[in-house]
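Suppose you are handed a protein chain with no further information: no name, no annotation, nothing but its sequence. What can you learn? This example shows the usual starting point.
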Amino acid sequence: MAFLSIAALAVASLAVAWAATGARAKPATALRNPAWKNVAAVRSERVVVIRDELLNTPGPPLVRGAEELLRVLRGFSPERKPESTKGRA
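A reasonable first move is to predict its three-dimensional structure. Written in structure tokens, the prediction is:
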């Protein structure tokens, strides 16, 4: 989905996976990006990064990625910010 489409949806929470970054990807990257400043999830710091290899690699890593995505989505409650997936696999 294009960035402009995401901004227009006013999403309250955002899970992202940047290709070829692995554990180096950080939510702070999205939070600092001026182009993302009007996205509700960024304004409220409700952005979490999922390691891209867990969503892009067929087989067992993809199953782990689906489990991680479910865990993160369950953590998107109104009362708390989601946990990072850094260092998880």
